[in-house]
Structure formats: structure tokens, C-alpha cells
Write a structure and sequence with these properties.
The chain is mainly α. The protein has eleven helices and no strands. 68% of the residues lie in helices and 0% in strands. It holds the Pfam family Ist1.
Length: 244
């Protein structure tokens, strides 16, 4: 049975959570400002007709955006653990309860994928609290209980071509830069505008399929790409860039 965490370690947990939340906010703001600058530079490449170079460099922006999203989730989970810290501090509760389980697992799993030593400290205290076996299963996600949104944002796979095209289209639109992928989007938008008039030979049954973000001829999004893209959130992020 795991031994109760020493009082000193628990006192450090509250302090570390507060510091982690503060630093997570700061890093998000810093990286968001940096990615805005990178988008402007990418738009200049598009204006110069250097699409091949833009497709390579946009991958860095995509990775940074995914990392920022990871930090946003970790910040929320740290807020949750801080709000419910009395549950963690209770020496009688030696197993992780369901109302904090998602937050605990996410912080333990995601800490090593961040650049914050405070998250590493929190991870170690939580593993000390709930035992090495619990910690090992959380770190390896052997039970599959770490939220998929956290697992995917900790992966380092290259972004799919569909996501690259989506980013370049939104950057080109936000900064009024030419990009060949926009022509494909315009065709799809035109199809969407006339989509209510069904072909008599091909009835839709009144159900309209969701439109793809780029041409239907492009490779379909994998589940991972769909999760990472979060098209509505992405478009909202780019909307904030317009006029800057």
C-alpha cells in the first residue's frame, strides 16, 4: 500500500501548482506571439511564390500550435488539481479518486513533454502520493486512460498534408497572400453554395455530409489529423490575425 506523502512534499504541491499555472500562461503568450511573427514571415514567402519552402516551414508553426494547445490543457488540469487539492492532501485517501483521475493522469503523462520543471515536480509528488505502479501505468498509458487529446498532442509525428494545406490556406487568406491551395478551396466553397440543389439522379435523402476543409480529391483526414486540426478553433485563431 502506498505510504502517505510527507507533509513537506504536499506543501510543495500547492506552491508548484500555482507556479506551473503562472508559467504555463506565460509560455503560451510568448509562443503565441512568436507564431504570429512566423505566420507573417510565411505569408511573405507565399507572396514571393516560394510555396515549397512555405510548406516545410509551416510544419514548425503547426507543431508550436499543437504544443500551445497541450499547455492550455495542462493549465486547465493544474487549475483543477489546485481547486481540489484537499482531496490530494487527505492522507486517508491513498488511491486516486475519479473526480481528479483525469487531471492527475494528464499531468503525469504530459509533464515530460513540456519545458516546465514545476510540472516535473508535480508529477513526482503525484507518483509519490499514489505509488510507483500507478505512476508507471500513467507514464506509459498502459491502461489507455490518459485522455486522447493529451496523448495526441504529445506525439511528434509530422503533420499530414491536409493539415499543412489548411494552415497555408488560412495564412494566405489572413494576409492576402497568393496560394494555389486557395483556388481548390474556392471551388469547394462554390460547390457548397449550390449544394442544396440535389441532383435528381443522386438523392441525398435530406442529409448533407460535412464539407471537407480542402478539395475532396485530397487524402481524407485520419482520426489523428481530425483531432489535431479542430477546424473551428483553428479558424478562430487565424481570424484574430486579420488586420494585423
Amino acid at each position: 500500500m502506498p505510504q502517505p506523502v510527507p507533509h513537506l512534499a504536499l506543501a510543495r504541491l500547492k506552491t508548484s501548482l500555482k507556479m506551473a499555472i503562472s508559467k504555463l500562461k506565460f509560455i503560451q503568450e510568448k509562443k503565441t506571439a512568436l507564431t504570429k511573427q512566423q505566420r507573417r514571415q510565411l505569408a511573405e514567402l507565399l507572396k514571393q511564390g516560394k510555396e515549397s519552402s512555405a510548406k516545410i516551414r509551416v510544419e514548425n508553426i503547426i507543431r508550436d500550435d499543437i504544443y500551445i494547445e497541450l499547455l492550455e490543457y495542462l493549465e486547465l488540469y493544474c487549475e483543477l488539481l489546485l481547486a481540489r487539492i484537499t482531496i490530494i492532501l487527505d492522507p486517508a485517501r491513498t488511491t486516486c479518486e475519479n473526480n481528479i483521475l483525469e487531471g492527475v493522469l494528464s499531468v503525469i503523462y504530459g509533464a515530460s513533454h513540456s519545458e516546465l520543471k514545476e510540472l516535473i515536480t508535480i508529477r513526482d509528488i503525484l507518483i509519490h502520493k499514489y505509488g510507483p505502479d500507478f505512476g508507471k501505468r500513467a507514464l506509459e498509458n498502459s491502461d489507455g486512460h490518459v485522455p486522447e487529446k493529451i496523448v495526441k498532442r504529445c506525439q511528434v509525428d509530422p503533420p499530414e498534408e491536409t493539415l499543412v494545406n489548411l494552415y497555408l490556406c488560412e495564412i494566405a487568406r489572413a494576409y492576402e497572400a497568393p496560394y494555389s491551395g486557395l483556388k481548390i478551396e474556392e471551388i469547394e466553397e462554390a460547390k457548397k453554395d449550390t449544394g442544396d440543389e440535389d441532383d435528381d439522379d443522386e438523392p441525398s435523402g435530406g442529409v448533407k455530409e460535412p464539407e471537407a476543409p480542402i478539395a475532396e480529391t485530397a487524402k481524407p483526414l485520419s482520426p489523428a489529423a481530425k483531432e489535431l486540426s479542430e477546424f473551428d478553433a483553428l479558424k478562430a485563431r487565424f481570424a484574430a490575425l486579420k488586420g494585423k
